[in-house]
Amino acid sequence: MPLKPTKRGPVGPPAHSSGRQEILTPDGKVIESVPKKTRGRQGLFGRIRDAKADSSPATSAGTKAKKAAKGLDPDLDAVDPNSPWHIDERRFPRYEPIASQLRFCLKYAVLAPSSHNSQPWKFHVDASGGEGVAGCVEVFADRTRAIPVADPHDRELAISVGCAIGHLTAALRHYKLAERVAVMPDAKRHDLLAHVFAEPGAGETNVRDALLFAGMLKRRTVRHAFENRPVPERLANELIEIAKTHGVDCAMVAGARPRQMLGKLVAEADEVQLASRSFRRELALWMHHNRSKAHDGIPGYAMGMNELMSLVAPLVVRTFDVGHGRAAQDEQLVEHSPLLLILGTKDDSQASWVRTGMALSHILLRAAAEGVGASYLNQPIEVDALRPRVAKVMAGIEHAQIVLRMGFGPPVAHTPRRPVDEVLMQAELPKPKRK
Ligand SMILES: Cc1cc2nc3c(=O)[nH]c(=O)nc-3n(C[C@H](O)[C@H](O)[C@H](O)COP(=O)(O)O)c2cc1C
Q: Which residues touch 282 (CB under 8 Å, ≥6 apart)?
């Protein structure tokens, strides 16, 4: 059925016609079934709905407690055993060589968020060692997975790889492997974004590390409207401190005026981006239906779509300019977000993008540990002409890199991932020849 955009209102196919709305994993497993009657509205990019209405946990508290008492991860068997999200942390190969330990920690690195779930990373494990170092993971950008229209400078690509580095260091610390990261270690190798060095047994795990790791399997992007309940100020301040430890600025968007400015900018960017056919085509390529077997991209359920919507949405996005509807939705989301953060850096180099990603990973993990979800309002940063205006929303931001909205939302299924084997390089890339 062709969709007719309304004037500055949400657009999209009709709601599911059965009595209940189901949210499915890529294998068609129902993770959530909620009554069709919600107080929210239906939009092409999912429902803006009352988060509280859907916040019933997938597993009952009693069952979870019993599993935890037996020493089992209560959430583990809710996950498809073949999914990269199914990790039993007790299987860490503590008595095996460093190469095996690093490969195990990479299972967590691949769970990192990435722009369009493009997962633009590759890793090489080097166990040759050196002074004070037992092993090293070389982290590369995989530019074959670039998103050239939305991200023409590969900025978000580098941030995404930074997220994988952040996840990796959080896992290394959890397993008491002392870690040190060298960002852009070789000026001649533009795609080598970091060396992550590790030393077994030398690390200490503190409360902060424990809280990062606790968020690892809980974190996912929550695109729904958040509950009308504030994010604790203590946590918000901690997130800002986490960014600082990575050399990244983080400003809380406080006050009606900055919030309004940001809302208008996001809406303006939505209209610019979605008016572009090439942008829409690119976006549609990364949108998948709910039963897709793809290991990357964004399934419809992650955007709150039922099966039918997830089938038609890529076609709709490719064909129609839905910018008006999206702009109106996003402006509302900004207005009602319990917490809005802008991450920024002093310069706009690839090294700063990688550090932004590391900060982003740790912010998201820390928040997830406390049940706080996040999603992105990066649109005005992605439009070159609007980007400088994002920095003007809050003092202390020079080069805006990421805009996050955060709060308490409903449970959302994980999106797919490429397993470690798919992103592990067997041999190091050839070094560039000297002239
Ligand atoms: C640098 C970066 C930019 C992103 N930009 C957006 C965005 O503009 N809109 C959005 O809905 N999600 C955005 N995301 C979230 C990804 O789509 C999401 O991480 C990915 O689909 C994987 O899903 P997950 O986070 O639930 O694991 C971004 C993520 C990263 C790391």
A: 147, 148, 149, 150
Task: Give the nearest ligand 1 atom to 303 CA.
Answer: 11
Of 127 and 26, the one with more pLDDT: 127
Tell whether ligand 1 has an atom less than 6 A from the beta carbon of residue 362: no
Query: Which of 326, 363, 378 is the best mutation target for the ligand 1 pocket, counting ligand atoms within 8 Å of the beta carbon and taking the most?
Result: 378
Residue of minimum CA distance from atom 7 in ligand 1: 376
- CA–CA gap between residue 104 and residue 167 (Å, rounded): 12
Per-residue pLDDT of 32-88, as tens digits, reads: 444 443 333 444 554 444 444 333 334 455 665 565 444 445 555 567 888 999 999
Residue type, 294: A
Q: Which atom of ligand 1 is nearest to the CA of 302?
A: 26
Interval 208-240: pLDDT, tens: 999 999 999 999 999 999 999 999 999 999 999
CB of residue 113 inside a 6 A radius of ligand 1: yes
Query: 136 C-alpha vs ligand 1 centroid, how far in Å?
Result: 27
Residue nearest to atom 28 of ligand 1 (CA): 115
Helix orientation angle between 350-369 and 233-245, rounded to the nearest 10 degrees: 150
Total-model pTM: 0.85
pLDDT at 204: 73
Q: Taken in order 151, 339, 359, 81, is the CA torsion positive or negative?
A: negative
Structural domains for the chain: 78-219+417-435 (3.40.109), 233-407 (3.40.109.10)
**159 Cβ inside 6 Å of ligand 1:** yes
